[in-house]
Specification:
homodimer, about 400 residues, alpha+beta, L-amino peptidase D-ALA esterase/amidase, 7-stranded mixed beta sheet, 11 helices, about 35% helix, about 25% strand
């Protein structure tokens, strides 16, 4: 499938490095480090799964204590999840080592992992590689590519983006890297995202902005409907732009949120475009909702329906499955008011089929980007969920690997 | 996959017939009629989808009015769903015709449909075939097979069962036919079930028993997590057994409920065994729950996880995906107390992996029947959800057909 262009995510005052420390076979990069040269405000959002990796527990605690962060260490190939007491000890040892090598407080190190679960993390490999990783920070033109490659699992391509804007003459830069939510070879979906900005903004406001942006982007994508034990998105703001501090509810905040949301949405779209086995990029938009929750439940029901997703893969203009998934969302609405559009073609009006020709419909279904719009016509709220189709390759990737 | 044996579902005082009325191509049976020779108490449970077929609307209303039913008319090949005003008119015309041919009140006819949605029902074919269908009632040794075949869609085999028991010297018989929840070629999942008994029991008590039995059977199976516009299970009790009326809360009720639940569970298991593309029969049991709801949410999360289902298809002993799905159920529990067993082999104890050998695990995964037991160890409630794996054939069946 056509991919979105990767932009170099470099942001003033941040440095990156990535290398192969030996967790994965075949000399594939599996360890990334990103640091801020100066103290940075930080915030993060984590998985809603009740089973979380020790890395999530560690990072959540550290952020709660400090509200700031200087370094992000991430390994791929092993999720360090369901690893008993050793898991948290490994997090402690690694963050301690990174802190020592960088000369920063341990609580300012954020740690994340992705890969197989239930297998003890070979932390000795990470500890051994840390000095070399630190020495490589920002030393090569490819350092951001190295870092974004080192967090990949079943991702086919690395994912990064950058955006900048000016507010009252001040230029602010935001950059980010992410990895996919298609399930991880050989285990499960993990979505990781790391965002960096030179804006001056405190950690509380940063958390608010990240939460809002994630709810319009990372929390609105679905490849297979699963939340992993390790999902997280973190943001660091190092203040190098020297703008007037961004305060919640101000025009400066709204501009920042707009840029952050756009960056997050671009990164999230890259995940869907690289979804396991995906051949279609699908936007499910529910509009005319009474509440955002109603709109979200319906959009999510359509976007996670195996029936809808296999029909999209088969290019079968089967709008009945879409309407059925709308009805299955577990939220009330009036079926006799619903309109459904497929790439702007009206399929269903007030709950009844239109006489759109089968030929026209088949042509629409052959496109790579499919927009499904569902208008409930009972209010003004909307939600969008991005997804992909369900293909043979999805089953292949997830069934054929034997641990 | 190995199937459960079909038993002849004949029950004293009921007659059946099935034929090809021309909705489907290739002379495949698509119209069934089952009648009770005498008035019968009746009850039904319907889909929770907010979009329902006119047949569901019609039958729900008729049952609410009368509480009794003499005839059940069912067509396959066309779901008569999302068919606008014509849909309800068709139900009216068909039930009127069936009532006239049988000499019974129209409100005592139950109607159900399954098949493609969004296409007007060719009701004239049903109307034309009704006299012949009525004349065939009970006339051949195969009449119950004819009826159970006539309600099939993507089902590979017809499904019926029968059970009898004695209570205080009185023999009571229950029989039933059902069709599958694997999505219907070319459209969506519809599960239909029709149960007949000669017990003396009023419609209110019958409704209570059916609701309880369905919550341990038909409502606890999942092939792809979708609820169709047409799902229903109906039960007719004609009193031919002349037992003392079964009243709620009595030993007689408990015996009846036990038999009904067993029958429903057998029929529901047949649906899973014949699930689209299924190669494994999977029972997800959550025990030690604080509430039934908690146990159900967790069992359902595991049973509907695409990650778990593809791992089962691939015979990958990937218990991490199971634990992840447990955590994803959206209900609180203590991860450090959870045990997980696979066909009685302990995989996870108190949230940590046991050292069960990989070889042993691989052997377990090769079996056709997989029991996943999750013990929350925080109470006494339990729930079981039956499911199957997610295979290439599931995607093939649901993607390759183009309407």
């Amino acid at each position: 499938m056509k991919q979105l262009k990767n932009r170099n995510p470099a942001v003033p005052g941040f440095k990156a490095a990535g290398l192969d420390c030996g967790i994965k076979n075949d000399n594939i990069k599996d360890l990334a480090l990103i640091i801020s040269e100066v103290p940075a405000a930080a915030a993060a959002v984590f998985t809603k799964n009740r089973v979380v990796s020790p890395g999530v527990t560690w990072s959540r605690r550290a952020l709660a204590k400090s509200g700031s962060c200087r370094a992000v260490i991430v390994n791929s190939g092993n999720a360090n999840a369901v690893t008993g007491a050793k898991g948290l000890k490994d997090c402690d040892a690694i963050t301690k080592k990174v802190a020592a090598e960088l000369g920063i407080p341990q609580k300012e190190v954020f740690i994340a992992s992705t890969g197989i679960i239930g297998v003890p993390l070979p932390s000795e490999k990470i500890l051994k590689a840390t000095p070399k990783l630190v020495s490589k920070l920002g030393k090569s033109a490819n350092c951001w590519t190295d870092a974004s490659e080192a967090i990949m699992t079943t991702d086919l391509i690395s994912k990064s983006d950058r955006i900048s804007y000016s507010f009252k003459g001040q230029r602010i830069v935001l950059g980010g890297i992410t990895k996919g939510s298609g399930m991880i070879h050989p285990n499960m979906a993990t979505m990781l995202g790391f965002i960096f900005t030179d804006a001056v903004i405190d950690s509380k406001t940063l958390k608010k902005a990240l939460t809002e942006a994630a709810d319009r982007s990372f929390n609105r994508i679905t490849v297979d409907g699963d939340n992993s034990t390790n999902d997280c998105v973190a943001i660091l703001a190092n203040g190098k732009a020297k703008n007037a501090p961004i305060k919640s509810g101000t025009p400066a905040y709204r501009e920042f949120l707009k840029a952050l949301t756009k960056l997050c949405k671009n990164l999230a779209s890259k995940i869907v475009l690289d979804g396991e086995g995906a051949t279609k990029f699908v936007t499910v938009r529910v509009q005319g909702g009474k509440t955002r929750k109603q709109a979200y439940l319906i959009a999510n029901s359509v976007a996670t329906s195996s029936l809808v997703k296999t029909a999209l893969f088969g290019e079968d203009p089967n709008w009945g499955r879409i309407f059925c998934a709308v009805g299955n969302a577990g939220t009330p609405f009036n079926p006799d008011k619903v309109d459904i559009l497929l790439n702007k073609n009206l399929l269903l009006k007030n709950g009844s089929p239109t006489n759109l020709s089968q030929k026209k419909l088949e042509k629409v279904m052959k496109q790579h980007e499919i927009d499904i719009t569902i208008d409930l016509k009972c209010g003004k709220e909307w939600e969008e969920v991005l997804t992909c189709d369900l293909s043979y390759d999805y089953v292949k990737i997830n069934a054929e690997y034997t641990t």
